[in-house]
Amino acid sequence: MLARIATLALLVTLSLSAQADPLADAIKAIEAGQHKQAAQLLTPLANAGNSSAQVRLGSLYYMGQGVPEDEKQAVFYWKKAASQGSADAMFHLGSAYLFGNQAAKTVPDPDREAATWYFQAASAGHAEAQYHLGLLFLAGKGVIDSRTEAARWFRKASAQGHGEAKKALSIIESGK
Questions:
Q1: Is the pTM of this model over 0.85?
Q2: How confident is the model at residue 176 (pLDDT cuts 50, 70, 90)?
Q3: Per-chain mean pLDDT for the chain
């Protein structure tokens, strides 16, 4: 009897470990260029509130990979992920307001909206957002024109190994 219970427990454990992890499978599908399959795997996860799935599915919609290109849908998923604290989603939102077509039309000042999202992501330690925020301060786009603030954000990104931020910082510090 005890041997049967142990065998049954072992079989249950093996079957559970053999079950697929849909998020991991979706990431593998994205890496393999199988975007439609990735979108199919990500959609139920994203709709159930998985922020990693929301970020990735938003990117598929933004790029039109495996799903129709739909910036509005991308922003929808990224906002859901951002509300859960995803710095990647915040960065993508900043980029959508700055470089996108549809998102920019939904707010009075797209540059300021981009800066707001970049600031949130940068404050959470997102190096690419720190770099982009530095660029906005350098250009005075959506924020005040401030070389000091630009250098501060480039410095933060540089400390994380961001190569372009290092270059920008060296230019600012050299006074050119």
A1: yes
A2: low
A3: 91
Task: Count CB atoms within 10 A of the CB of residue 71.
Answer: 20
19 pLDDT more than 70: no
**Cβ–Cβ under 8 Å, residues 51 and 80:** yes
Spatial neighbors of 170 by CB under 8 A, at least 6 apart, are none
Q: Are 105 and 135 in contact (CB under 8 A)?
A: no
146 contacts: CB under 8 Å, gap ≥ 6: 137, 140
CA torsion sign for 36, 41, 45, 47 is positive
